[in-house]
Amino acid sequence: MLEPIYAENVIVGVVHKKQFQWYVTDRELWYLDYVKFAQAFENGGDSVVDEYIEPERKGIEVLSSENAELFLKRIESYKGDAANLLKLFEDKIESEDEEDVLDFSPSFLVDFDQKVFYSLFPEPTSFEEYVPSDWKETYEDFTALIPETEKYWVNKDGENLFEL
Prior knowledge:
4 helices, Group-specific protein
């Protein structure tokens, strides 16, 4: 699992086949529609997509429910779980300055079952603009949608580490 780094290595919640999973990955993987992304920057179409595409996304220009399983297999090494994320978060709080707490804010929730992309990405980049056309996208705090057992920011005493 990668170490979360503010706006670079992001924490992403994924729902696929009714299963919830955390991943810590490079943020670039979560432009779901690379074709739209490439067009927005160069008006170049499909040929430009190869310049932007990450190795894990080769052959998956538009990440959707139909090809999610292949993609999730490719990023399996980036899986995280609530216990590991909580431990990393607690270690960060104890050892570093408070700004690094932002490294642990979840950036995206990608629900392949419902075709909804939620973003909480902290920088001006609008990942939610680059989703497949049949998806809903929103920029909002999605943390209430996360299963209680997966809320890695809540410690064993029930304290929200973002509020300490």
